[in-house]
Structures
1.
Amino acid sequence: MKRKTRAATAIALSVGIVGGGIWAATAFIDQQQTLLIERCTAAVGADEHRLDPEQASNAALIAAVSIDRGLQARAATIGIATSVQESKLRNIDYGDTAGPDSRGLFQQRPSQGWGTEAQVMDPVYAANRFYQELEKFDYVTMEVTDAAQKVQRSAYPKAYADHEPEGRAYASALTGNSPAAVNCILKRTETAGDPERVISQLEEQFGDQNIQAEALGNEVHVSASNTLGWAVAQWAVANAKSQSSVAVSHSGLQWDRKAQAWKQASTEDGKVIITLARSNGEG
């Protein structure tokens, strides 16, 4: 009888220890998630620049619209640097003393002919409108701050120069000229991903003439190679938080949300594959 009692006690203790270990491990992971600071970086050469996921998503949109318009990567550098200065890459709905009606990513003023308030608050419209002005002159041969000022007509004409390095790094990566240069460190997903929504955003920002995409289960397959392929792949990484992406594969590499990095992977030639979460809590 005593042996049975001792055995039962030992089993109970073992179960308790295992259960306590599982609880401790879960609590540790949850704490790690709580303390994690979400961020995206663009590492090009020796330079590395950090944005939060919202800012990175807006930088990706600005770069994508430049590709849709057939512009050189320098246009994206100017666009991103300008938006950093004007709104910190946020789609803000207020202005300041100098421009009380300024709105959006570029703080465009409806009173100055940039469009209606609703239009300039639409990031895709705002980026297109910015480039519409930029295309009127030879921005390629100009200093970034001078080109930005020619479009914006700011009271602080040299301020854009402060943001040229980060504009250049993100533009190089997000136009596909620097492969696997964008990495985002994110918490677990909060919702399941929506493949049709991702395709809609791809087509809206890159242009439906550039993008051929299809939804296959919880994946989005995009036919794209070379610089366009890398532009789409890094656009997907920059949007991974809002789109609940857990992996992005292209050209022998895969960005993995859980690993928080790019790694070697088997990929299909000429394809970008965006894998979305099936439920919350993935990654």
2.
Amino acid sequence: MMASRQSGNNAQEAASPLASPPHSNIASIIPSLPLETRCPPFPLRRYANFWVPEVILKADLPGIHSCFKPRPTDVFVASFPKSGTTWLKALAFATLKRSTHPPLDGDHPLRRCNPHDCVRFLDANFNQQKDELEALPSPRVLATHLPYSLLPGSITGDRERSGCRIVYVCREPKDALVSAWLFTRKAASALGADARSFTIQEALELFCDGRCMCGPQWEHVLQYWEESVRRPDRVLFLRYEEMLIDPEAHVRKLAKFMGCGFSEEEEEHGVVSAIVELCSLGKMRDMEVNRNGSNMLGVKNESYFRKGVAGDWSNHMTPDMAQRLDKVVEDALQGTGFSFTSKA
């Protein structure tokens, strides 16, 4: 049984985690929202129980809620930052678009473009790219780091609308923390921040307090998990660690969920294994565009490809640090019915 959870009592916060905050007047309340500047690369504001980059609250969130027009065929790749997003983007794109872009095609978009260029973030410069998003052919694959409760009802669906399909990838908190910390130290300068002196201890303190991009991480995960339990036809919940163990099984599950299951002929011709190979970390890391290219913000594409393994946190955190984070997460999840422990 999932426990009932209440939101904080800030005047600006929703009464329930899944209630819709008053996004229309957010510009007027931003100055009054709690501010966090110690977590590079962006200043964060606490809004509806989550620490969200101020720039997203000022421009992207209001625009998404007022202007974005989802389609019934849209598929959203959702995740907490640094939880397997790049890999899932590639897998979802290659799977959904395989009729027009066969995985063995030498000119496949993923052979010449970074996955983040193939699957755009809805909550990144939305107002500047909304016309480009509108021009994309259906079915579209889009991405978001927003908590479920901050997505528009037109995406999540309500009693009148079925909503879009959402694929969420969850990662063990310690690995998510370490990956985010290393990425920030590497890419922050391109984003106008100096994170060279940002230590893992400082990152841990902020993470345990939920003061990180879209944090608390466990609340972010929990919202999507609860919706996957409530509406498994609309929200597919994946665990990064289980995907690493059997990627082909997860690609089949992904295809079925997106409404494009593999035919017997495709299975016989090895299409599933071809997609997994095309989207493997090693293959993508070796692509010219990912070795030497950069995105519109100036962040080098190679920053998005590190080890891609489970358990690397042990190379960067002490046992005491790990124990502290485990306890914070355990206490926060008590009574929810959810655990980060993989069933694989």
